[in-house]
């Protein structure tokens, strides 16, 4: 048994689905179901006894303690977070509460539980914290990619809150010996991503014939990783990572945002052509995000060398699968856009 938090969100849901497709080890999935939590992502598991969904807050110490005591997991994997930079600029409070206070409470409950374990169970237990490359701040063109020793220089309330949580995780290892692992990953894309993030936003708007908003000059550079490759790296870190270590996870795919948008437009031009002309005619440059980091790049050599992990997808194969997934799942897209996904839980997960 493992305890996953935030498993109804984008990466968490992909992780839960992949995990149960590859192993029979059950999952307790704790998610408070914010706007980003969508149990429709886990529709395939609605009748699966190996998936125990609990709606609740990682900041609820009594609930976490109860779940740990009842289910005795061998690991906690913390995906739960407020994750959108723009939202953190307009309302940072929730980011402080969930990403910092919530992670702290989860660590505290995890530590008490781990202290109560004996022998092999205690030795094998892991607390894996899922984090971001944004904690390292912005790189200039030509500067080497972020490795694990890079200084933390977060620039948005989102990245500052994730940086604070990473520091707490580190401290719980160094001070209390809790066997923690931290992964810092670059931008993910793939199925089930809420269409406020660049890739699904562009796909969904394009299919609706709406403008494709691009911040500033569109030359902000990010590293891109297909979500299922990220899930594989997390599984690998859980199996073989060294307690106390951090692992940078990336796809060696540095690309400016505008290139991402052009790639999606070109794919849609072949898969679902517009009668009025190419999709790129819908591109609309909008005022840049305040404090927008210019470049992130990940040096993934440690996770490759020490854990033997490599991504399966190139950007070209991953983005093609992603665009196809959104084309194949109009009901999911429609429910997210109309807000109907909010009531999916009442219809399908009653009494679970
Ligand atoms: P997401 O916003 O899609 O999902 C977050 C999930 O956490 C949602 O299901 C939400 O309901 C849940 N949640 C929020 N607050 C909670 C709370 N207090 N208690 C319990 N559940 C709560 O995010 P995501 O993109 O899936 O990201 C998952 C994790 O990976 C985050 O920690 C994020 O910082 C990190 N990360 C994301 C990316 C990316 O590109 N998306 C890249 C690197 C790291």
From TrEMBL:
Belongs to the NAD(P)-dependent epimerase/dehydratase family. dTDP-glucose dehydratase subfamily. It comes from the Bacteria. GO terms for molecular function: dTDP-glucose 4,6-dehydratase activity. This is dTDP-glucose 4,6-dehydratase. Keywords: Lyase, NAD. Pfam families: GDP_Man_Dehyd. The keyword NAD applies.
